[in-house]
Amino acid sequence: MTSTATGHREGYVPFPEDAARAYRAAGYWAGRTLGELLRDTASTHPHRPAVLDDTGATTYTELDAAADRMAHGLLALGIEPGDRVIVQLPNIPEFATTLFGLLRAGIIPVLTLPAHRRAEIEHLATLAGAVAYLIPDRLGDFDYRELATTVSAAVPSLRHVLVAGDPGTFAASDTAPHSADATPNPHPHSHSHSHSHSHSTDDSTADISDHGSAVFLALDSIAREGDSLPDIDPADIAVMLVSGGTTGLPKLIARTHDDYAYNATASAEVCGLTADDVYLATLPAAHNFPLACPGILGTVATGGAIAFALDPSPEAAFAAIEKHGVTVTAVVPPLAQLWSAAVDWEDAELGSLRLLQVGGARLAEVNAREVEPALACRLQQVFGMAEGLLNFTRLDDTDELVCTTQGRPLSPADELRIVDAEGNDVAPGEEGELLTRGPYTLRGYYRAPEHNARAFTADGFYRSGDLVRQLPSGHLVVSGRIKDVINRGGENISCDELEEHLLAHPAVRHAAAVGLPDASLGEKACVVLVVTGELPTLAEIKTYLTERGLATYKLPDVIRRADSLPITAVGKIDKKALRAGLA
Ligand code: OOB
Predict the structure, then answer these.
(1) pTM for the complete prediction?
(2) pLDDT number for residue 212
């Protein structure tokens, strides 16, 4: 077996005992697992709609039962509590069933985005030691089964690929357990659990794990009835989120049931969520914002209904708002801008919408001021991070605060420090780097001790890399950033990561990625290259990066040539000078 009951904690940085005790004593950590949030709502609101889709509603009783069947099905495959599973599902109702199934089984979902590609997924699956990979069959013209074939050949710990939809010719069968066009399986007759009747045994799963080629199954074929589910410790890891990017490769953020349940329920309270609310997941559901701020988890905890939109365009999202009577949703600034303008040409009825949350990147004041008149709903700015800390403008804040700040901390137990380059606290109201610690903020990235030594202070504060000022009211204004990240319309691109890929190009001698101002995205990604011979075109560089397996949202928008790159006194690329030179 590749896992033990506690193997998943190896490389996990827990909250210190005294802090954990204090968070429990103060009631922030309620000792409820995420699976219990759903269980409790299913008992208080059994017949209320949990998930709305084109064909109707799934009630809480039904979602609760479906999650249990999914949990039993996953366990029957030989996936064990504490095992990690890569989840790369889009905004479809199966996202909810699968997520709660995993949580109920104590299996840890590693929540990746549909936009991630081979480079990210292979890295994350390897880092997590994932045993299974959950994908849709295809989305647009991208076939995730092909991606999974490549990934499973490179990540030997992966034993199962579970496909929402058609596992296609990639499906396992008694004689052809693997994709027809992939590496042939050396033991074609040793796999027989290709459908729901399978009872996996230790020997069958151990056998598969040995040779790095996973069995493809239809996700909806594994659900089954069962007796009891494992006991889950609320202090244990519930989910892993992918960091928006700081340095180098993406990091994993392990969130416990206790801390993430608090994250979701406290966010629900700030948004005044009730069982009458309908939440539209329009940003990718695997992202912290639509997942738990309050998002899907906060809505489930409150007894409201969730609708999923695959497409955040005004046309599709407005239709979903009208059809399902959506009351709350969350978007990034470019979408807020687009939606505000689109009311002029879209004629959907948006009267149900009462709250639009906007976050992920700085919302310009002019755009903030457009939201309420255009969409006739309250605006809420949200400045958050997968690492934990969330700031919200409050529903009863003045319009001035709502339009000019990024909100104030969610919890009375959030500790904030704003420090200068030497790490000293700045005077009140001055700009500095935001450091934070609290009941739902991580104490270390998963399996990243070296990075953790830099990303956290000795006393456990997370260095956000964001520059902020704090008003006397406690509200923060995000004024910039010291981390080497491009925030492209709410999607964070690690410059290090992009540069690494560029440097692998045969013509590239030096590479620097910087953000340039952009009216709709906030920032666009510019790469400055020192090359031998001719400068590759933007299209060539994009193709090259795509072939290396990089997610599409990390591809550059602009390419520039330089004879040399400006260097700082310590010999690092001087991004400030570079940006100034490009402006
Ligand atoms: C959210 O989470 P991540 O992890 O994708 O990105 C976090 C980073 C922050 O450190 C900051 O640099 C930037 O994105 N950011 C903002 C912002 N919200 C996030 N910068 C300026 N203004 C804002 N309102 O992006 C996220 C997580 C939960 C809720 C909302 C956003």
Answers:
(1) 0.91
(2) 57
